[in-house]
Amino acid sequence: MTSIQYNYAANIAANSLKANNTLMDQSMARLSTGLKIGSEGGDPGMISTYNTAKVDSATSRTGLQNVNMAISRMKLIESQAYKMNDIYVEMASLALQATSLLITNSDRIGLEGVYQSLGLELSRIVAETSFNGVANIMNGGSLSVFTGGGSNITFLVDDFRLNTANAANVAQRNAAGHEPRPGV
User: Is the pTM of this model over 0.85?
Assistant: First the structure.
C-alpha cells in the first residue's frame, strides 16, 4: 500500500513565506520608485492624488512641448527677418550706387534689375516661409500657446509684408525717370 506523507506545518510555513515575499516585493517596488502607490492595492486615499499628479505631469510635458515648438517657430521668423535685413542693406547700397554720377544709364538699369530682384526675394521670403505646414507666419498677428495648467503664452509677430503703397510710389517715381531711394 502506498502512503503519501504530508507535512502540514511545512505547508503553512511555505504559504507564510510566499505571502511575506509578495509583501516585501511590493514594499521594495514602492521604495525604489519613490511612490507610495505601487499598485491598485495601495492606499486608496492616495490613488486620486496620484492620478491627479500623473495627469498634471503629462499636461505640463505637453505644455513644454508646445512652448518649444512656438520658440522654434519664432526662431525661424527671426532668421528670416535677418535675411530680409541683409537684403535691405544690399538694396540701400544699390540705390546709393545708382545715384553716383560716375556710372552710365545702362549701369543704372542693371542696378535697377538687381534691386527689383531683391525686392521679389523679400516678397518670396514673406510669402513662402511656413512652419509645420502653417503658411503666412510672417504676416503679423499673435501666436497663443497653451502651456498647461490653464495658462497661455502669447507671442506677438511683426508684419513683414512689404508696404504696397510705398512700392506703388516707387514704381511711379521710377517710371517718371527718378532714381530709386535707399530702403524703399
Answer: no
